[in-house]
Structure to design on (456 residues):
């Protein structure tokens, strides 16, 4: 069925029909009468599918720790952990447009069922002691399919909610996905210990089928959903998009990178404490739960101020991790790593809050409030921010790949993670300086413009 046909056959009543032709979430009467219930139902099943996407995306962070029988080097294992991050980041751009192109319900069903590929192939790989390393790399790469789910899920939910309620809905959607990293690291050591390594993939199959069935029977497609690839191309040409992509590498990229690297770091650098891998889930749990605090603080203090000081805290946390590893102090290492992932979570919330504020400030600069031109500028700012967010979230996710490769390369070259940690601290120092220069600096603002006055 095409979108045109769907619009002709849609009943116009939310919940009755797979395609909805009449969807007006910003109309208060429509929203309270029928829209809210339908949007909430779609959000619930979107969160379920996205949560599973994150679990399959990061399942190799635990499986890699259990591959001792294959005699892979630590660097090779970090390659296995890092490839899903690389593929998932790249898939975020096309996945952003999928709900509008194919329908949110339809794409949620398809993207959920695609998770069967990495789940089943994982079980096949670990069931054969002769599986070559290249096959592990290829199969781990398919887990990147789960990484793309975040982009399509967030884009889809945006269409369902009125502008005034999108923040809360998207926050719940994002948190539900991010917690998937924690749930996989909590459950998989228990599942593998009880049923074997293949169960790390097969365990998720019934849940994937349940999520696909839930989306099929209870979600809807919207004919009003519009994909704007040209707007994203325009966004990619704006300096603010790339500045925020850099900062998002430092926040969300750090969250996903440290979360997936943590179990393997424990196993490789503190082998005598390998049993503590079962507590690795606490890192991503803290980072996910604390993410809304970054947004909350940003609403009160300004996103740039929170991001600025948070990068300073991340530098301190990295130095603490380095000190703990140098002294081979596992207790300090564990606490410092919790702090590092936690600050990444705060920054995740604050940088995400900055994006719409930046594009709004740029759009309304010099325009008189209360005029038709101002209202049009506000709409332009929202459109530009929406296009930029998809691009920024994709680029930022590549940080997960860089962090895992940084650890792997450092350990292979020097025997320890010190070189990687030094590089990460230097990168956060760069982000600290860029945040100040672009969004907090008042000195020399006439010569080099800054958005400090807008308190983004």
């Amino acid at each position: 069925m095409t979108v045109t046909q769907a619009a002709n056959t849609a009943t116009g009543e939310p919940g009755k029909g797979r395609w909805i032709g009449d969807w007006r979430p910003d109309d208060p009467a429509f929203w309270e009468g029928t829209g809210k219930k339908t949007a909430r139902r779609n959000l619930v099943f979107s969160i379920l599918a996205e949560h599973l996407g994150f679990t399959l995306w990061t399942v190799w962070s635990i499986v890699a720790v259990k591959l001792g029988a294959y005699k892979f080097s630590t660097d090779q294992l970090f390659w296995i952990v890092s490839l899903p991050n690389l593929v998932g980041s790249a898939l975020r751009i096309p996945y952003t447009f999928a709900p509008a192109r194919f329908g949110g319900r339809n794409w949620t069903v398809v993207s959920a069922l695609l998770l069967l590929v990495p789940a089943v192939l994982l079980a096949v790989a670990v069931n054969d002691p002769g599986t070559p390393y290249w096959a592990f790399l290829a199969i781990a790469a398919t887990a990147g399919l789960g990484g793309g789910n975040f982009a399509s899920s967030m884009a889809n939910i945006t269409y369902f909610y009125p502008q005034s309620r999108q923040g809360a809905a998207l926050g719940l959607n994002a948190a539900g996905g991010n917690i998937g990293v924690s749930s996989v690291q909590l459950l998989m050591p228990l599942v593998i210990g009880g049923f074997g390594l293949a169960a790390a993939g097969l365990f998720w199959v019934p849940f994937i089928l349940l999520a696909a069935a839930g989306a099929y029977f209870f979600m809807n497609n919207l004919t009003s959903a519009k994909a704007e690839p040209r707007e994203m191309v325009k966004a990619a040409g704006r300096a603010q998009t790339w500045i925020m992509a850099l900062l998002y590498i430092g926040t969300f990229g750090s969250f996903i990178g440290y979360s997936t690297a943590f179990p393997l770091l424990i196993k490789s650098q503190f082998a005598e404490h390998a049993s503590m891998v079962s507590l690795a889930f606490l890192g991503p749990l803290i980072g996910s739960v604390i993410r809304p605090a970054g947004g909350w603080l940003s609403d009160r203090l300004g996103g740039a101020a929170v991001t600025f000081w948070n990068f300073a805290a991340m530098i301190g946390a990295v130095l603490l991790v380095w000190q703990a590893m140098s002294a081979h102090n596992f207790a300090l290492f564990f606490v410092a790593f919790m702090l590092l992932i936690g600050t990444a979570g705060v920054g995740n919330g604050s940088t995400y809050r900055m994006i719409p504020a930046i594009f709004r400030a740029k759009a309304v600069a010099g325009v008189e409030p209360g005029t038709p031109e101002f209202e049009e500028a506000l709409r332009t700012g929202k459109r530009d921010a929406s296009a930029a967010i998809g691009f920024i979230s994709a680029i930022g996710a590549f940080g997960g790949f860089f962090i895992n490769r940084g650890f792997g390369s450092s350990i292979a070259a020097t025997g320890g993670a010190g070189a990687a940690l030094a590089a990460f601290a230097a990168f956060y120092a760069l982000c600290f300086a860029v945040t100040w220069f672009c969004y907090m600096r008042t000195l020399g603002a006439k010569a080099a413009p800054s958005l400090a006055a807008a308190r983004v």
Observations:
- The first helix runs from residue 3 to 9.
- The CA atoms of residues 172 and 180 lie 13 Å apart.
- The two ends are 43 Å apart (CA to CA).
